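During the no-cost extension, the postdoctoral fellow (Dr. R.K.) reprocessed legacy sequence entries with the updated structure-token encoder. One reprocessed record is reproduced below for audit purposes.
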Amino acid sequence: MTVSGSPPDSGRARLSMDESVGELVSQLTTDLGQLTRQELALAKAELQTEAKKAGKGAGMLGGAAFAGWLMALFLSFTVMWALDEAMDLIWAALIVAAIWAVVAAVLAAKGRKELQEVNPKPDETVESLKEDAKWLKTRKS
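Re-encoded structure tokens follow.
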């Protein structure tokens, strides 16, 4: 028996004598639950990948900052003492500080670029949810 006179090849849902509306609702609920679980799993996988990228970028920035700080400390003292032979210690310290300001700017720019490449939006999940919504609409009609 077809639903309210729909053409046989229209693709609309059909009710048989042994299928009740309750069974159809139950099947739809089961499908929707399974679909929801699959979408959540996809979103979780995408977000984990992006979190790893962000962690890697942050770790690199932290490592660069620590290594740069140690290098700056010892190299600064060396350069200041070397420049102290040619000028006052105050001018030597200012020159060293300017050099490290440039180094810090370069490291910050590279770290910022790395973090900007992180995409926190799960694009695949969004597209999949759009497809699921279309599927659900066809299922209801």
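Residues 21-118 form one domain. The helical segments are 21-84, 89-116, 123-140. The remaining legacy entries will be reprocessed before the final report is submitted.
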